[in-house]
Amino acid sequence: MSQPQQQQSQTQTGPVDISKLTAEERTKYSLLRAPDYQGTESSVLNTSRKACWLSRDQYFECLDKNNENKDKCKEEFEKFNNSCLDSWKRFIDNQKNKLMAGSTSSNL
Asked: What share of the chain is helix, strand, coil (3-state, %, to 5)?
């Protein structure tokens, strides 16, 4: 099976519970989810991931405090934007959109 086919079959199996993965498995999973990442060292990837998730948390906290007003969270957005790989940002945005859609539909 070619690498793209392997990646496709692995991503179609559904959501992955990252908490149940070993550090090595998390790194491999992250590399599959982040095709724009050029490195392979797990310590570099782990550090990048931590910085990304921290900046994501700060940005989303700012949005929560400011009723989703992005103009008031420009600094936090820039940090988030500069800390995360493009593929990670897309994944995070998709997850947030799903959560937002779920919370609005449950309020109807």
From this structure: 75, 0, 25
pTM, to two decimals: 0.54
- What confidence score (pLDDT) does residue 104 get? 59
Q: How many CB atoms lie within 10 A of CB 81?
A: 12
HSE-CB of 106 using CA atoms within 13 angstroms = 6
| 53 in Cβ contact with 34 (< 8 Å) | no
Dist CA 54 CA 97 (whole Å) = 19
DSSP string, 3-39: HHHHHHHHHTT----GGGS-HHHHHHHHHHH-TT---
